[in-house]
Design goal:
Blueprint lengths: L1 H20 L22 H4 L8 E6 L3 E2 L2 E2 L1 E2 L1 E6 L2 H11 L4 E5 H6 L14 E4 L4 E7 L2 E10 L5 E9 L3 E5 L1
Parallel strand pairs: 1-11
Antiparallel strand pairs: 1-8, 2-3, 4-9, 5-7, 5-9, 6-10, 9-10
Length: about 170
């Protein structure tokens, strides 16, 4: 009878494994097994905060180099971080933190947004000598988008940044 007692824990373990095998795995955020999260709906109310004036500013610098070449920028965009833009940038850039992606790759990725026009909420700045500035910003989270080039194909730099009433310095 001692052999039968030692087999009981193994039988219970195998039964638990068999029961769990029929369960579906549900991803806990990110891009685990299963479909990627769907697009967030565009809602102008989500962008309203970004249209206000504030006391924050961003002093930026482009210092992107590849294969010993320094990349130059021409213009820089500042996009409010909203559920809509976060979902969109996750698809376009593969991240909502930072990225350096060839422009051709970004353009090849598609995001369905037939009725969304968030461009009126995007701020723009000129990049001169590798530097750019945004002033009069309200507190909030933003995405900096900077297309750069070293004479050949362009690369798009993306970086998330937060403003909180003061001057933020950022290097891409």
């Amino acid at each position: 009878m001692p052999a039968a007692k030692s087999a009981l824990p193994m039988v219970a373990l195998l039964a638990a494994i068999a029961a769990l095998a029929g369960c579906e795995t549900v991803p806990m955020g990110g891009f685990g097994p299963g479909p990627a999260p769907g697009p967030a709906p565009f809602r102008a109310d989500d962008f309203a905060w970004s249209a206000r004036e504030g006391r924050a500013s961003i002093d930026g610098r482009i210092d992107y180099r590849r294969d010993g070449q320094r990349y130059e920028c021409g213009s820089v965009g500042l996009t409010p971080d909203t559920p809509y833009t976060r979902a969109r940038f996750r698809v376009l850039y593969g991240s909502t933190d930072r990225a350096a992606i060839p422009e051709a790759v970004v353009r090849a990725r598609t995001v369905a947004d037939p009725n969304a026009d968030y461009r009126s909420y995007v701020r723009s700045s000129t990049c001169q000598d590798g530097r750019f500035t945004f002033t009069g910003l309200p507190d909030g989270n933003w995405f900096i988008i900077a297309p750069v080039s070293a004479g050949g194909d362009r690369v798009v730099l993306m970086r998330a940044v937060a403003t909180r009433g003061g001057r933020v310095s950022v290097t891409l």
